[in-house]
Predict the structure of TF-B3 domain-containing protein.
Amino acid sequence: MPSSSSEMDVEPDVLFEFVLVLKGDPRGIQRLPDSFAEYVGGVRPRKMHLREASCGYYRWIVDAIYDARGKMYLNIGWEKFARHHSLEAGFILLFSYFGNRDMSVKVFDERRCRRDYHGDMDTDDRRTTECCFFAANTCTEVSACSPHR
């Protein structure tokens, strides 16, 4: 279940970024890169707060688990995030980590075009109630990606 947040008016500094290509079941447990697990290794957060990058109003709380070798996975809560954002095998996700368990995710479809989940909304009231509930993409008919804000 997403949690509400209104403090994302200014994007914090990105501390770490990585790309994840979804393979197999996109709603299943997802292993994060070893370099990221090492980066947060001293802290080993048990929960991560995910949001779609263009939507600062909702956070998806996802359990982070570790195996005996220190490999890090997104577990409980990931399925809801993946289902809500209609993730599919072959999609590419760009994760940005801001510290304090806070991460944003940019979603690119199988054509390598960024998906837009909020549409063009003018008022904060509409954005609060509708943000992240629309799925579209920013591709033209010839599958060329158009610039994204």
The CA atoms of residues 64 and 74 lie 5 Å apart. Confidence is low (pLDDT under 50) at residues 4-8, 120-149.
